[in-house]
Amino acid sequence: MVDYGLKDRVVIITGTKNPKGYFVGLTTLDYVFYVDSHPQKNAKTKTNSYKRFVGGPAANAAITYSLLGGNASLVTCLGNTVESDYIQKILNEYGVTVLNCSDDDAMPNIAAIAVDQNGDRKVFSGQNQFNKINVPKLDKPDFCLFDLNQQELSLGIVMNCEGEIVVDAGSWKGETSEFLKKASIVIASENFRDPLGHDIFAIKECVNAKKAITRGGKPILLADGEIPVEPVACADSLAAGDIFHGAFCFAYYHKHNEFKTALSFASKIAAESVKFIGPREWAKHIESLR
């Protein structure tokens, strides 16, 4: 099997400046099965449609940023296996610079994903605990996006990060409050809550950050209103949220859009991505969003 996606880096949109963006967190090898319906308990579903992709929130955001024309570096733990080498090769082909922060002889993170005819997913995520993690000193970042995974690595970086910090807040994990305290921007899913049940508009740690809540096909929530989301027919929602974050970073830091405009741009890219099977096919059809 191969990575069914855009194999060569395609610079789709250009800017006047090429800021250095770091994406810190999880990279996975995704095995995706496209099924008519999700299996019930103790049942088997057969399909002839299955593919392999490099995935994970930080990796998908970095690939998106690079495909749009940005300078993306991915800081992650891949280990030292044949699978690790494959992942790094694919990321390099998408134009992403990879900082592999663990040389453990351990499997990289693996995900098994079932996608039904409505584009809805069920995900099994195997996340390895790497024993040896080397925390790098980042070279003059303009911004760093953290997906809140691989927190030993991420905490080591965020404490000394010189660039602006963007938090992809999918769910509360471990020391999330430490990232929120330093965040310039927090973009959360509608399911994100702190241990007391507060959403990002009520969490005191990120009171000074720019904040938004994404809700799939529903309008994006802001502290002072909403941003409409284009309704589309969903073929595959795989990586749509990660693509949103990568596209936002590109619009905000590379194109220098203001916050709401960048969110709207990211929404359009994410909406385009779910029209197609797989997390990269959207990039072949992006001319319509220029």
Tell me what the structure shows:
A 9-stranded mixed beta sheet has the order 5-4-1-8-9-10-11-12-13, sandwiched between helices. A 4-stranded mixed beta sheet has the order 3-2-6-7. 23% of the residues lie in helices and 24% in strands. It is built from 6 helices and 13 strands. The protein is of the alpha/beta class. The model is unreliable at 4-12 (pLDDT under 50). It has helices at residues 57-67, 82-93, 151-158, 176-182, 240-254, 259-273, and strands at 20-24, 28-34, 50-55, 71-76, 97-100, 109-115, 121-126, 143-146, 164-169, 185-189, 210-215, 218-222, 225-227. Helix 1 (57-67) packs across helix 5 and helix 5 (240-254) runs antiparallel to helix 6 (259-273). Helix 3 (151-158) links the parallel strand 8 and strand 9 (164-169). The chain has one domain (20-27, 56-108, 133-282): 3-Layer(aba) Sandwich (UDP-N-acetylmuramoyl-L-alanine:D-glutamate ligase), CATH 3.40.1190.
Layout of helices and strands:
Blueprint: E1 20-24, E2 28-34, E3 50-55, H1 57-67, E4 71-76, H2 82-93, E5 97-100, E6 109-115, E7 121-126, E8 143-146, H3 151-158, E9 164-169, H4 176-182, E10 185-189, E11 210-215, E12 218-222, E13 225-227, H5 240-254, H6 259-273
Parallel strand pairs: 1-4, 1-8, 2-6, 4-5, 8-9, 9-10, 10-11
Antiparallel strand pairs: 2-3, 6-7, 11-12, 12-13
Helix pairs in contact: 1-5, 5-6
In a nutshell, what does this entry contain?
By secondary structure, this protein is of the alpha/beta class.
